[in-house]
Ribosomal RNA large subunit methyltransferase H
Amino acid sequence: MATIRLHCITSLFSCILHRMQINLISVGNRMPGWVQQGYDEYAKRLPRECELVLKEIAPGKRTKNSDVARIVKEEGERMIAAIPQSTHIVTLDIPGKPWTTPELAEAMQRWLESGQHVSLLIGGPEGLADSVKQLARESWSLSKLTFPHPLVRIVVAEQLYRAWSILHNHPYHR
């Protein structure tokens, strides 16, 4: 707990010096209303010093005879084009590192202190293209379970808000 309290103090100073944008870049569009509503609920709770921006990547058209490898590669190309320059890239991938919420708060603190914006990347039904994975500095696993991609958006937004609340000693996490 002493470590987290120290982070709270240093994060207040970081916020004065740095404004961080977190880009949630996700394959998929035309989500049901409940997905957008859930995502928006947590994204709007984050202060402007830690803005969460959703960038949707059009998924490739899939049929039973589709060339899935080609589709994933093309989705990867569109995803790479959507990543802002000089951003810290984190993939969301099952083989990634499973962070606890306090570990995510520590990662957020590092991101704030780096002065860089962050891009969190969520792949399509078959995952992320290798070209995207190679760009990542970190890989985060939400779980060994497979979640529906629309739900991942909400979980990530909530966890980012929770991490922010830990850094600022906000009662949300208690």
In short: The first strand starts at residue 20 and ends at 27. The beta strands are 20-27, 50-57, 87-97, 117-122, 138-140. The chain has one domain: 2-60+67-173. The CA atoms of residues 94 and 114 lie 26 Å apart.
